[in-house]
Please model this.
Amino acid sequence: MSDIEKANGRVEHLSHLHNSAVDPVAQPSFGLRGVPMRKFGNPGALGLMSFATTTLVLSLINASARSVTTPNVVVGLAVFVGGLAQLLAGMWEFAVGNTFGATAFSSYGGFWMSYATILIPGSGILTGYTSAQELHNALGLYLTAWTIVTFVFLIACARKNGIFVFLFSSLVVTFACLAAAQFTGNAHVLKAGGVIGVIVALIAYYAALATMLTDDDWFTLPLFEFPKRDE
Model:
């Protein structure tokens, strides 16, 4: 065997060892050669915490907690926490190969940014309608669209785990109540949507904590995973 063949054999052997040690999901290469692989953390916890915190504050306002009914205080949260932080979590979910997490976090990040834009006076959205009823109907249509989006996510997560099913089921009801409240002007329906929204936020906090806890911690929380089809 020539020296060239021996050298090629050593290169192939080292390449095989390198490739076998790399997890393509946890350490994506993005198709770039010569770029060192690094293990990614789970961005799901960031996405869930961002979603939960913004949802909690708005839901408490919708439920008239402490007699607060004006949602303007949520604008900052909606832009930077529920919006930007959750959108970033969605982008990182794409990087680790989680299509569901990427789509869900990015979508709700967009939702919070769009909701904040509606509340910002400079956008002119709230003052662009000729009557209060037209504005409420428009907001009802907006929330109806997000009810449908959330129902799609509910279908997609039906085989994942019990916590996610509970989360998205409750979120569907929340959006439906908020949409109905805009169409009808019923304050009780709005308050019901706020109460259910608080439950959604608490479920999301639970899921975030369960995601962050590992076997090295004092305890772990179950997500009630469903068995796979081949199990």
